[in-house]
Write a structure and sequence with these properties.
Chain A contains eight helices and no strands. With 306 residues, chain A is mainly α. The longest helix of chain A is centred in the middle third of the chain and has 48 residues. Chain B has one domain: Alpha/Beta hydrolase fold, catalytic domain (Rossmann fold, 3-Layer(aba) Sandwich). The termini of chain B are far apart. Classes of the chains: A mainly alpha (306), B alpha/beta (361). Chains A and B meet through helix 5, helix 6, helix 7 and helix 8 of A and helix 1, helix 5, helix 6 and helix 8 of B.
Chain lengths: 306, 361
């Protein structure tokens, strides 16, 4: 792999040439705007009652300031004493970029490997009522890829006034992605018995046809298919793999729902509607009060019966 | 290698025949489906004689009363009690009425978010106890007969242990009391379920979510074969009516109050406290040895929701010396709705109660 430091040094020269060109360009633009567009007090006195003209003038002033700032910044960067610092930053940037893409490439390669393994198994012989060859690790690999490559960006610290809202929205996006991945895995597992049964029945039909023993009764064939499918499901649904994925799907659904409720809660807070949280507090108090009243009534009845 | 000959002529012949029968079936099915169908459930007449919050008490009065002691039926919080009166010719309620039994049945109603804090104790020591007291007062009797279905049976066991003086005879049907088994898929899954998290997320446990779970217990039969069967028989009016009734009942599923759901999963499915005499309800330990009244215990040999292992231990753990286990060759619902069990299940209950009723009229 190419050394990022060399790549950085090579781009240094062309970058500084570009910066010098840019300085010249912005300098020219600034002069053109100042000379031709902006009215000055002496040549074109500003009519005091024309608001629109005033606003336009203000816009020119903003443009002018902006161009000057850009120009100063570019000039500062191309100064001899700052060149070294700029050059180091560029190298660091390239190193960072390589680090990110390096991690991504490794994870992507691993994911690609899983896909290739899965493809290579297409058409392989399958044993009836056996789920040792379950190939659902591809989902785990996909989740890892997501966790290493994307999740960290979702949880980049949020700043400022909307921090609270952005954090909740980010959590919702993340929880949805995780739930979606587990749900996909569960759906995949759920269809494995159908795929397996179809393959076995297909093989049986081929075998029967080889012996010129064609199935005339489609009902009998269907009954055999459904019986085998039931058997496959019974085997799969009791397996540790399926139970684990089912549990994780339900847990991730709960997490996703909670995050969704948090976001909805924020929206509802702006409306004159009580939220579930607020109503739950009322219900809890109501429940406790009813329980106390029931107990007191029982005690009173016991006392009056004495 | 010999080349396989595909019998195209035979395939084409079969297809032509299938096409002909399918066409006739579809024409008939359209006729059946577009005409008035009798799909009402729970048609036996009753009166609502008591109500507390969402909970109602149904009273079915027989034409002639043979037993002085009335029977209170407690259904599970999952699905509805209408299953016992699904259709006129397959109605447990009707058979019991025909045997002269005065029936009360709890309709738990549809819990809302405000019911999420209700515990098993609130159901057993609250609603059930108030209803038992109401019936005793109405008839001026000290004890009643109690019958529980599935989770309702578990409630009955708890109630009978905590208030044995109020129960004359106890009938349990497909009642889970021993949860230390991996025979049913439900047992495996529930042990891996984070009930606290679900409770926090949903408030009450949604009935639809539970129904989805039940369908996933046997997807080949419940999601595919069942509807293939419907397609094959949709030209049969009676079949369609029965099928729709069953569909109505299955998917008419109330939510389960969160606190009860959490307690049931954690204390029963995960810790198996009930059968060990360690379950605490409202601060009181449920001691099964206090169940000294006669106990009749029904369960299904092929029950995939509450397997026999979950049901059969209770009669060995109670304090009663008069116990009987009855195992039917059927599943969880078959006990109540299959035509074979209809002839045996409810009549056996009636006979057993009559044998033990010293106050027969």
């Amino acid at each position: 792999m190419e050394d990022p430091t060399i790549a950085g040094r090579e781009s240094e020269h062309s970058a500084f040439s570009w910066l010098e060109l840019a300085t010249g360009f912005w300098d020219e633009v600034s002069k053109i705007i100042t000379d031709t567009q902006i009215p000055t007090d002496k040549k074109n006195p500003l009519p005091s009652n024309e608001d629109s003209f005033k606003n336009r003038y203000r816009t020119y002033q903003i443009w002018k300031t902006g161009f000057k700032n850009i120009n100063s910044f570019v000039q500062m960067m191309t100064r001899q004493d700052n060149r070294e610092a700029v050059s180091e930053s560029m190298v660091t940037f390239f190193e960072l970029l390589t680090q990110i893409t390096g991690d991504s490439s490794e994870n992507l390669l691993e994911f690609q490997q899983h896909i290739l393994n899965s493809i290579s198994r297409v058409g392989e012989h399958t044993k009836a009522y056996n789920f040792d060859d379950l190939d659902h690790r591809i989902f785990e690999s996909l989740r890892k890829l997501y966790e290493y490559e994307f999740q960290k960006y979702i949880y980049v610290p949020k700043l400022g006034l909307p921090r609270f809202y952005l954090e909740r929205i980010s959590a919702l996006i993340d929880k949805f992605n995780i739930h979606y991945s587990y749900l996909s895995e569960l759906i995949y597992l759920f269809f494995v018995p159908i795929e397996k049964t179809n393959r076995i029945i297909q093989a049986e039909i081929e075998e029967m046809m080889r012996h010129k023993d064609f199935v005339e009764d489609s009902d009998a064939l269907y009954n055999e298919w459904v019986k085998m499918l039931e058997g496959h499901y019974m085997k799969l649904l009791q397996s540790a793999e399926y139970t684990e994925v089912l549990k994780k799907t339900i847990d991730s659904l709960s997490d996703y729902r909670k995050s969704k409720d948090e976001v909805l809660y924020l929206i509802l807070k702006m409306l004159p509607i009580p939220t579930n949280k607020e109503m739950d507090d009322v219900y809890r108090e109501l429940y406790m009060m009813k329980k106390q009243i029931r107990e007191l009534t029982d005690q009173m009845n016991q006392l009056s019966n004495r | 290698m010999e080349k396989t000959r595909i019998p195209v002529d035979l395939i084409l012949k079969n297809l032509a025949e299938e096409h002909k029968t399918s066409k006739t079936r579809i024409r008939k099915a359209v006729d059946v489906l577009t005409h008035q169908l009798k799909t009402e459930i729970s048609t036996t007449s009753y009166d609502i004689v008591y109500q507390e919050d969402r909970v109602k008490l149904k009273h079915y009065t027989p034409e002639h009363i043979e037993l002085k002691t009335p029977l209170l039926i407690i259904y599970a919080l999952i699905n509805r009690e209408t299953m016992l009166d699904l259709q006129p010719d397959r109605s447990v309620v009707k058979t019991l009425l025909n045997n002269g039994i005065d029936i009360f049945m709890i309709d738990w109603g549809f819990p809302t978010r405000k019911d999420q804090y209700l515990t098993i104790g609130d159901h057993v020591n609250g609603y059930i106890n108030n209803i038992v007291k109401f019936i005793c007062k109405k008839y001026n009797i000290p004890r009643i007969n109690l019958m529980g279905i599935c989770m309702g049976g578990t409630f009955c066991v708890i109630y009978s242990a905590l208030h044995p003086e109020k129960i004359k005879n106890l009938v349990l049907t497909v009642t889970p009391t021993n949860f230390d088994t991996n025979k049913g898929l439900l047992n495996i899954w529930m042990k891996n379920t984070d009930a606290d998290q679900l409770g926090e997320t949903y408030g009450n446990m949604p009935g639809d979510l539970m129904n989805l779970g039940f369908l996933l217990l046997n997807p080949a039969r419940l999601l595919i074969d069942k509807y293939v069967g419907f397609l094959k028989n949709m030209d049969n009016k009676e079949f369609v009516e029965n099928f729709v009734r069953m569909e109505k009942w299955i998917f008419d599923s109330p939510d389960v109050p969160a606190a009860t759901f959490k307690q049931f999963i954690n204390d029963c499915y995960k810790k198996n406290l009930l059968i060990q005499n360690k379950l605490e309800i409202d601060g009181e330990v449920v001691d099964l040895r206090k169940i000294t009244m006669p106990v009749l215990n029904f369960y299904g040999k092929y029950d995939h929701l509450v397997p026999p292992e979950s049901c059969e231990l209770i009669t060995h753990k109670v304090g009663s010396t008069d116990t009987r286990d009855v195992c039917f060759d059927t599943g969880h619902i078959g006990i109540y709705v299959s035509s074979k069990c209809q002839k045996e299940f409810a009549p056996q209950i009636a006979d057993w109660l009559k044998e033990r009723d010293d106050s027969r009229l």
